[in-house]
Amino acid sequence: MSNLFSLNPSSSFPYLSPLTPPKKFSFWKAKPTFQLKKPALVTSVLSTKTDPQIPQSVQTFWQWLCDEGVVSSKTPVKPGVVPEGLGLVATRDIAKNEVVLEVPKRFWINPDAAAASEIGSVCSGLKPWIAVALFLLAEKSREDSKWKFYFEILPQSTDSTIFWSDEELAELQDFALHPRLKCFLLRLLGTQLLSTTLGVKEYVQNEFLKVEAEVILPNQKLFPSPITLDEFFWAFGILRSRAFSRLRNQNLVVIPFADLINHSDIVTTEDHAHEVRGPAGLFSWDYLFSLRSPLHLKAGEQVFIQYDLNKSNADMALDYGFVESGSNRDAFTLTLEISESDQFFGDKLDIAETNGLGETAYFDVKLDRPLPPAMLPYLRLVALGGTDAFLLESIFRNAVWGHLELPVSHANEELICQVVQKACKSALSGYPTTIEQDEKLIERGNLCTRHEMAVKIRAGEKKVLQHIDKIFAERESELDGLEYYQERRLKDLGLVGEQGEIIFWE
Predict the structure, then answer these.
(1) pTM tops 0.70
(2) pLDDT at 476
(3) Which of these is catalytic: 287, 307, 320, 431?
């Protein structure tokens, strides 16, 4: 969840708005079960002989791939035991952008596979991810499923925060706001990750109750084994963490074997990491999922891809169950809202929608990066009132956003600066630990995986809050030197010179 500003220009501080639902999400790149931030040495790689370090289920899965013709002796990668858990390891030197595996379409798990299955008749009209989730669970319960050996290597859960216990989530616990501030500005529920996790869990539960009542229970012949909420969460977690998207004509697809590939921050591009190409070669009757190595590798090194350059550490923790070190993924999402009680609500909403925003707008602020371009104009719009309200009149409608991209008035600019600073300071004072204390906890190196993730995300959010606070503090100190709407207007009319002097005529 994101923090919600509801600026009310009629008072010194905005009031609190109710918690908004989580932002719309989608399923992204594949990932393995467990992740590390840096490449590491491979413990063991599957060989033609039985390897005691490779789980029997993985050896059986590999034999199934061989029997089905998906892999052969020429395939340059095999499953290996790596610090992340399982990964794909080079069996020979691999060139940059070389194809390392190909998986025919008949093995893909996607909405098309669900539609063509026994449950396809009841999946029509469902959200794609729900149809695929039901398909996963239906196939998993079948002894004769084509994907039987694939299901046997899937984890029971990941380190995604949706699988954390209440005790683990307590590390992302709500902090206390000063009683006075609770009435005004901002609702900050612990880390954003906690709020988002709780929102996603509620969303998945509601979707389960709906599909259970409308699809599962009325069609018990198609679902002979009861599907529980925990199982539905498992399917959601598998899709969230392992599905590829943004492929040609494929928005949600799980690719067995390819989804063993791990993420690394040493890969700095998403280009050519995976693609779907047309029928060709041995599988001339089928489309192929083709995975290329973005790096040059030596035999024995692990193959990595970049899951998503734009995700924050909180996103990575929710989706994949890991975070990266460093500050590149530290981010904080500000959620700004036009209050329905604002006397200019209709006009402001019309202006926001005309410019691609809405009643609620989300802005991802990253550490040591400039503010999102539309954030200041939207803040000025939300705070607009008093003598500045004339800009909301219909005569300005086509030009008002251009005016909002620059300071409107001293009062308007001062309000948004003070409001944001008070919000950031309140949030920072409410955390149970300081950044320095969080960093000491991490340095000790004795935290469990999930506790360390929570501390890193917590520290990152605080750093971004300090970054935002600094930006608006500096801006407030410069208010007297800014040029506002009325001055710009007078200059346009030729009534004021470039130095602000009034121009007189004889």
Answers:
(1) yes
(2) 97
(3) 307
